[in-house]
Amino acid sequence: xxxxxxxxxxxxxxxxxxxxxxxxxxxxxxxxxxxxxxxxxxxxxxxxxxxxxxxxxxxxxxxxxxxxxxxxxxxxxxxxxxxxxxx
Length: 87
Fold this sequence. Notes:
mainly alpha; two-stranded parallel ribbon
């Protein structure tokens, strides 16, 4: 285990299936969680690495997620790397 790596689990969806209420993604919850991750990254001088969060089973749209990341992290000086994993 490396002491310089921290894993953050964010809860930004309700349920796991698309239904009559739309996809499970909850953009406001995701935004709030990203701000908290940003706070912790700023405190520790960390960078943030992630996949395309919220765009898989949560059913979110990257064009709505990316601005949340830019606002909560990048605009606050946190270096962010988003990984695009091939299926």
